[in-house]
Design goal:
Length: 326
C-alpha cells in the first residue's frame, strides 16, 4: 500500500494539503506511542458511497482516548461530520479511513499531561489487505513466537499506537518465515488474534472465537460477522481456544476492517480442512459483502452515506424498509 502524496488531510478541524500535514520531531506520540487511532472503510455501493459502521468506529476511538485520558473536543456527531468532510474534500468514492488522536508538541518525558491533544483524519485508496486472491483462495499463517499483551499491562481494548509495536513483531516474523500473517497467543497460551485481525474457527457447524478477555481488540468487523452468522443460523461461541484447535478446525478465517473476511488455508504448514475456502466462510463473506456493496438491504443501519446528491438511493432504501443514515 502506497500513498499518492496528494489530497487533503483533516487536522484539528482544518483541511490541509497532504504535504503540509506535518508534526514536530519532539511531538510526544513519536517518543512514547501516546496515540489512539481507528481504521474504517468507505465502500462504493450501488446506492452511493457509504462508510461501514462509522459511528461504532468513532465511538471506539473516543473510548480508546478516554482510557488514555486524552480528552478531545469532538462528540460522536462531530467525529462523523469530520470524517465525511474529509472524504468529500478528497472526492473519494471508496477509501480507507484513518482518524488519529495523539499527544502533541509541548514537553517530553513519560508524563504526557503537559502536551496538547491533537487529532487528524487521513483517507486513501486501499484494496485487499492480504492480496487480491486472498478472499477466495485463502492465506497461509503461522502461530507467532510473540504473545499478546498480558492483562493489566497495556489495555487491549484501546486501539493504541503503542499496541502495534507488538503487531509489527508478529507481522515481520510471519513475513520473514514465508507466511502472510501471524496468529498470536495470549499469556495463558490460548489463541488471541492476528497482528490486526480477529480469528474465527469453524468446527462441526459452530463458529468459535476468542473472548475479549484473551487480549483481543473488540473488532467491529468481528461483531458484524457474529451478527450475520447468527442470522444465518450458525451457533456462535466466544470461548478460550487452545492453539491446537486451529489445526483440527474444519475452517479458520480472520476478520477485520483491513482484511474484511479472509479464509486461512494453512497454519504452521498444516492444511486447514480441505485447504481452501470453506462453505461457512464463503456464506459469511457473501453476507458481509452484500451489505457493504449495497446488494442487500442495510437492515442494521450499518451504512452512513457520504454524498448528499445520492439521497435518491437512500429514499429508495427507506421505502423498502431498510435502515439508512445520512
Amino acid at each position: 500500500m502506497g500513498f499518492s502524496g496528494t489530497g487533503k488531510i483533516w487536522m484539528n478541524g482544518k483541511l490541509v494539503e497532504w504535504k503540509d500535514a506535518t508534526i514536530h520531531i519532539a511531538t510526544h506520540v513519536i517518543h512514547y506511542g501516546s496515540g489512539v487511532f481507528e481504521g474504517a472503510r468507505c465502500y462504493k455501493t450501488r446506492r452511493g458511497s457509504a462508510c461501514f459502521r462509522l459511528d461504532e468506529h468513532m465511538q471506539r476511538l473516543m473510548n480508546s482516548a478516554k482510557i488514555y485520558r486524552m480528552a478531545y473536543p469532538l462528540d460522536l456527531a462531530g467525529w462523523r461530520h469530520a470524517v465525511l468532510e474529509t472524504i468529500r474534500a478528497n472526492e473519494m468514492k471508496a477509501c480507507y479511513i484513518r482518524p488519529l488522536v495523539y499527544r502533541g508538541y509541548e514537553t517530553l518525558g513519560v508524563n504526557p499531561l503537559g502536551n496538547p491533544v491533537d487529532a487528524a483524519i487521513m483517507v486513501w485508496e486501499w484494496g485487499a489487505y492480504l492480496g487480491a486472491d486472498a478472499l477466495e483462495q485463502g492465506v497461509d499463517m503461522k502461530v507467532s513466537s510473540w504473545s499478546r499483551m498480558a492483562p493489566n499491562t497495556l489495555p487491549a481494548m484501546s486501539k493504541c499506537t503503542a499496541n502495534y509495536a507488538n503487531s509489527q513483531l508478529i507481522k515481520m516474523e510471519a513475513l520473514a518465515d514465508g507466511y502472510s500473517e501471524g496468529i498470536a497467543l495470549d499469556v495463558f497460551g490460548n489463541i488471541s488474534e492476528g497482528s490486526g485481525q480477529n480469528i474465527f474457527i469453524v468446527r462441526d457447524g459452530s463458529i468459535l472465537t476468542p473472548p475479549i478477555s484473551a487480549s483481543i481488540l473488540g473488532g467491529i468487523t468481528r461483531d458484524s460477522v457474529m451478527t450475520l452468522a447468527r442470522e444465518l443460523g450458525f451457533p456462535v461461541i466466544e470461548t478460550d481456544l487452545p492453539r491446537e484447535s486451529l489445526y483440527i478446525a474444519d475452517e479458520v478465517f480472520c476478520a477485520g476492517t483491513a482484511v474484511e473476511v479472509t479464509p486461512i488455508k494453512s497454519i504452521d504448514k498444516i492444511t486447514i480442512g480441505s485447504g481452501r475456502r470453506g462453505p461457512i466462510t464463503e456464506a459469511l463473506q457473501r453476507a458481509f459483502f452484500d451489505i457493504v456493496t449495497g446488494e442487500a438491504a442495510d437492515t442494521h443501519g450499518w451504512l452512513t452515506y457520504v454524498y448528499p446528491d445520492e439521497a435518491a438511493f437512500r429514499t429508495r432504501d427507506a421505502a423498502s424498509g431498510a435502515v439508512v443514515r445520512a
